Amino acid sequence: MTLLAETFIDTAWNFLTSHEFLENSVGQWLGLLGIILGVMIGGKIIAVVLLHHARKMDAIEDKFIITSMLAKSLAKPLPMALLGLGLAWGGEILTMEPDIEELYEKAARTILCVGVIWFIFKIVDIIEVLLRRLTQKTSTALDDQLVPLLRKSLRILVVIMGFLYIATNVYGKDMGTILAGLGIGGLAFALAAKDMLSNLFGSGTIFADRPFAIGDRVKIKGYDGVVEEVGFRSTRLRLLNGHLTVIPNSIVANETVENVSRRPFIKRILDVTVTYDTSPEKIKLGMAIISEMLEARKSNFHKDNPPRVHFTDFNADSLNIQVMYWFTPADWLSYLAFNHDFNMELLQRFNDEGIEFAFPTQTLYVKQDSPIEASLKTIQEPTNQTGQ
Description:
Strand content: 5-15%
Mean pLDDT: 78
Radius of gyration: 43 Å
Structural class: alpha+beta
Distance between the termini: 158 Å
Order of helices and strands: HEEHHHHHHHEEEEHEEHEEHH
Largest sheet: 5 strands, antiparallel
Low-confidence stretches: 383-388
């Protein structure tokens, strides 16, 4: 080593050790900076490697999805956690006043704890995937809607627990004081947000009772539509006219819910009215035609409820043949198509047999005057004229 090099090294060393800034030498500050840069670069490299392997696992097979999500969950919080460790390690190099040193340590530990809490927060996504695999095995789609609600609840729980941990273990706050403050604040919040809490409990009731599933057609408080989503606050219905209706869960939980989609059949009561001049023989013939038509379609009726045909009423303007059947499957469009075919054949066959359908009519009978009344009118007319 030459004399010039030795002189440069001695000068640089003296500069790093003798020159101070905020009671610490330049060398101490450079050491802290080197540690921070080292952990940040190291954390970034590890994150890039984890994301690269996660993408490779995503491209291979779906069975590695949990491992891939774990790598992705660790990639972003890891640099922050390493930064907290680097700051804590670098703080050992510096000379600080006790108050400043305490504040510095708390800041470093806070960054480390935030990184760990962030990682746990991301782990909730993995729990969501596992729960979705379980709900896919169930027959109802309402369980699938429950998973996002659980994910949100777990994330809120992680944030609250992380806040309490940092407050008690890093900043030394008393847990009882914190909980007392949260209790008072929670009471005030509950009084101010009574409706929101009632909707929250209503959503719990819906998921516990399962009165309907996603995609079911229901009738709630006069609204008739298909359930699209059940959230913490409300249930969304797509009405039959296409409009979207949002109903608070507190109303859904307390109202009568008619689940149209779960009906085993669609019942129809058809009144076939014929004119009063229809003979009993033709009434019997009409009932036989209807019974024959129903027998030919028996595969469309519910097995426990056979169709029925009866001559039921003498209406004011017609004779009534009542037809009842329970159509299956309970699909509305199939039901309409079935009724169309049935009605067309019934109309054709009644016309062929000369059985007339009745419609609201009235027959007016005019009573003629008797001969005595006509004579009286003739006698009275001249008298009235003389009086005038």
